[in-house]
Amino acid sequence: MTIAFLSDADKTGDWARALARELPGDDIVIGVEAALAHANDIDAAIVWYPKPGVLAQLPGLRAIFSLGAGIDHVFTDPHLPAGVPIVRLIDPALTEQMTEWVVMNVLRHHRLMPIYASQQARGQWHRHDIPRARARRVGLMGLGELGRAAAMALTRFGFPLAAWVRGPRAWSEGKLYAGADGLAPFLAHSDIVVCLLPLTPETGGILNADAFARMPAGAAVINGARGGHVVAKDLIAALDSGHLSAATLDVFTQEPLPESDPLWRHPRITITPHVAALTLVETAAHEIARNIKRLRAGRPMAGIVSPAQRY
Ligand code: NDP
Ligand code: OXD
Asked: Which residue segment(s) compose the domain that 16 sits in?
C-alpha cells in the first residue's frame, strides 16, 4: 500500500521513520506535493488539518487517519471525498495522559489549589474547609475513550460521578444523563465539570452562559476537549460574577492563544497549552499501522467516525 503523511507536524522525520518501521512493506509518502505526484497510488492518508481539497484529489483513497483523537480538524476540509472512512486515533498512551491531566485538575480544584496559589502570591496564610471527595460531584461531558478512562481513575478517590452522553445506556461508575434533555440536570448535579466531548455542530459553544448558570454556585470547569466548546466571554462573566469558582482550559479557539487574550490573565483561570494528551509518535504510529493492517486484510478498523455525527 502507499500511505501519505499529510501534516505540518514538526516531527515529520520521526513519523516517516516510525511508519516505515511499523509498515515495512508499504511506501510512505511525505507531504502534499509528494502525495499529489503519486495521487493515483495513495491508499491511505494520515492527516492533521488536511489542506482543503487535497484528499479529494486522491482517487484510490480508502481511509483517512487522524493524527489525533479529535477529528474536527478533518471536517475543516469542505471537499472531503465522500464514502472514505475517517478514523480517529485511539491510543492507550494518549488516553493515559488525558487521564493524568483530568485527575490532576479535578484534584487541584477539589483541594482549592487555585485559591492557595493566589494566596501564596499575596503571602496569605488562610485555611479553607473542603468537603470530602464523596461530597464533591464530578460531571464528565463525554464518556468515550477518554471520558471512560478518566472516570475509572476518579472512582478511586470516591467522587460521586455523573456523565453526559448522546445515547442512554447502563453505566456502573455513576449516574448517566443523555441527550439534550439530560444536559440541564447533569449540569445542576456537577460541582466540577470536565469537558471531554468531540467538537461537532451539536457541541460547539455548549459551555455558554446558560450552561454556567445551571451549574451549582461555586462550580469549577475543566476543558480538555476543544476551545470551540467554551464561549470565553460567558466563562469570564460567570467567573467574575462569582457564580463559578475557577476554570482550567487546555484548548482554545485560536492556538496558540494570542498573548493579548484576556483568558491568560484572568485570576481564576489556569491555562495549559494544549498538552492534556499529546500524540506520541511511537505509540500513535503503532496504532495507525494496526488499522492499516486491518484495512489491508479487510477487517474492521478501530475508531471509524460517523460522518453524520462527526465523531
Ligand atoms: P469519543 O468519540 O470516544 O467520545 C465522545 C463522547 O462524547 C461520547 O461519550 C459521546 O456520547 C459524547 N458526545 C458526542 N456528541 C455528543 C452530544 N451531542 N451530546 C452528548 N454527548 C455527546 O472521543 P474521545 O473520548 O476519544 O475524545 C474526546 C475529545 O477529546 C476529542 O474529540 C478531542 O477533541 C479531545 N482531545 C483533546 C486532547 C487534548 O490534548 N486537549 C487530546 C485528545 C483528545 P456517546 O457515548 O453517547 O456516543
Ligand atoms: C487530539 C489532540 O485530538 O491532541 O488528539 O487534541
From this structure: 2-91+279-297
pLDDT in tens, 266-280: 999 999 999 999 999
- The reply to whether 128 belongs to the active site is no
- d(CA 214, ligand 2 centre) in Å: 28
pTM to 2 decimal places: 0.98
Query: Which ligand 2 atom sits nearest the alpha carbon of residue 89?
Result: 5
Say which amino acid occupies 137: R
Instruction: Examine the domain organization and report whether 38 and 107 are in the same domain.
Output: no
Residue 164 Cβ contacting ligand 1 at under 6 Å: yes
Tell me, what's the pLDDT at 107? Answer: 98
Helix, strand counts (H, E) of the chain: 9, 12
Work out how many domains the chain is built from and give that number.
2
**Is 286 an active-site residue?**
no
Q: Tell me the per-residue pLDDT of 138-176, one tens digit each, with 9 for 90 and over.
A: 999 999 999 999 999 999 999 999 999 999 999 999 999
pLDDT at 9: 83
For residues 180 and 185, give the distance between their C-alpha atoms in angstroms, rounded to a whole number: 10
CA of 120 to the centre of ligand 1 (A): 36
- Which regions of the chain are under pLDDT 70? none
Q: Is 171 in the same domain as 203?
A: yes
Candidate list 88, 137, 226, 266, residue with the active-site label:
226
Residues 232-253 as b or e (16 or more Cβ within 10 Å = b)? bebbbebbeeeebbbbbbbbbb
Atom of ligand 2 nearest to the CA of 68: 5
Is 44 found in the same domain as 187? no
